[in-house]
Amino acid sequence: MYSVLIVDDEKMIRDDVYGLLSMEESLELDLTTAASGVEAQAILEKRKIDIVIMDINMPQMSGLELYDIVRERWPFCKVIFLTGYSDFDYVYKVHKHAKYVLKAEEDEKILEALRESVEEIENSLLLERLTDLQREQQKKPLLHERSMFLRELFEGYRGLSQFTGELSVQLGIDLDPEKEVYYLLLRHEAWYCENYQEQQNATQDCYQLLERYFLDFMRGAFFEYNKNYIVLLLQPEKLLHEETIVKMLAGAGELFQKALKKNLGRTVSILVGERPVTLSQLLQEFIGICDRMIWLSGEELVQEGLQKEALAKETLPEHKKQELMQMLWRLEYYLEGMEEENSLNVLRQLQTELQSVKSMHDLFALEAYCTISSRLIGWIKRLELHEELAFRVGILNLYNVSMHANWQDAFGYLRHVAESIFSLKNQSVEKQTEDVVNQVKKYIVEHLDGDTSLYNLAEQVHFSQEYLLRIFKKKEGITILQYINDLKLAAAKQLLTDSELQVREIADRLGFASQGYFGRFFRNKTGLTPNAYREAEKRKIENG
């Protein structure tokens, strides 16, 4: 799908070009028009445009002036000038990277320039993807090996002495083992992708954000721990007060959370270490630090010291707590991937393990329940299953653990909710897709004479243009543009057959910019002019 902006102060030319391009269904063009350079500039400030087709001589702002704005705002945007003979030589010398079509030339010249522009964009995108892929492929092995080395260090499979060895240097671990480190622990919140490749791409995007917000001003490294956790180890380049550094890290963490949510639609909770420690100290305290993450959910960011007092009141034995933490980590990973069998198995294990906890005031069990509840609530909201589950499982119990007699019943209830979510998930996704497509179809029918551009349709349903294109074609078997054109053609045939409206009136009623554009569209679809079609239909009726 390519967005095309047509700019010309002459309405007839603007409408003719719009009509010509709207019949190029194979390219899936999203067409927008502007009557001046100023109007075009306003559009370019709001949205990305792939191709601009514009006149040179326009009032207020010339095409040449607009060209400079286009190149500054969207450097990779392709420009096609509509020129007269008198302008051609001059403009060509000034802007050799643009394309030029003489206004006196046939429509095919415009289509040819458009197709060439689309091909150039596709080639650029392919080259960019190949370059990025090559770059990422070069980084991935090193990043993977570095992450594995650090994870094995923290899990006790490697000794700290190996950190200072040659292997650490080869892996590019930018940390001085003799100096203290500051640390942050990040926990994913409901990170789910439809397939493995999407998950990998999203993870790489997350890593790039981490590098941007933390490693640009500090030396350090990060690694993935137990799938749902990322550990950051940092050492400042400058000598600053500890409190200042902790505040800087908290600020960077907040910016990272916002960027992650804006760019990837994901959330993460962050625990910021309250002081620098040696690597030896950190290794000893790491399990306890992870324990404190159970108190965080959603998009929280806290400093470590704020969690210690509450955590000290837990009653479960340390060894049991560690076992349950491992279960919770696995469960969060399985829930994020919507792995039904594994998720339900872990929930059964938790139900069995916690039956020995007699007190409903045990803080660890309570937080485990709330953590799992928050994940399930997130899925209920995401899949819009609230009404379907309200009477089936009694959703209020997710918010109030006191409604359960004991922990065995509480975790048995969580398992029941999870089972219900899994059973309804596929139905819900299919229904949501169907509802969106039906909403778009209804809007098109009701606004056939108005703005039915892909940009506007996507705005109506609050989806990206690419996603809307994909689900519409999957559901209907045709593109949105084909659907619109089919509706307009059917309506035009009916009005030509059953009404006495003039061709000009029919064109206006169906949202065609001009009678000429309507005539060209109709002839392209049927092989007949509107009047010829009307006469042929009258003869059919007369002949019985």
Automatic annotation (TrEMBL):
Signal sequence, start to end: none
GO biological process: phosphorelay signal transduction system
Molecular function terms, GO-annotated: DNA-binding transcription factor activity; sequence-specific DNA binding
Keywords tagged on the record: DNA-binding, Phosphoprotein, Transcription, Transcription regulation
Residues carrying 4-aspartylphosphate: 55
SMART domains registered for this protein in UniProt: HTH_ARAC, REC
HTH araC/xylS-type domain span: 438-536
Domain Response regulatory residue range list: 3-118
Superkingdom, taxonomy of origin: Bacteria
Pfam families: HTH_18 (PF12833), Response_reg (PF00072)
Record flagged with keyword DNA-binding: yes
InterPro entries recorded: CheY-like_superfamily, Homeodomain-like_sf, HTH_AraC, HTH_AraC-typ_CS, Sig_transdc_resp-reg_receiver, Tscrpt_reg_AraC-type_HTH
Job description of the protein: May play the central regulatory role in sporulation. It may be an element of the effector pathway responsible for the activation of sporulation genes in response to nutritional stress. Spo0A may act in concert with spo0H (a sigma factor) to control the expression of some genes that are critical to the sporulation process.
The protein's name in its UniProt record: Stage 0 sporulation protein A homolog
Upper lineage: Bacteria, Bacillati, Bacillota, Clostridia, Lachnospirales
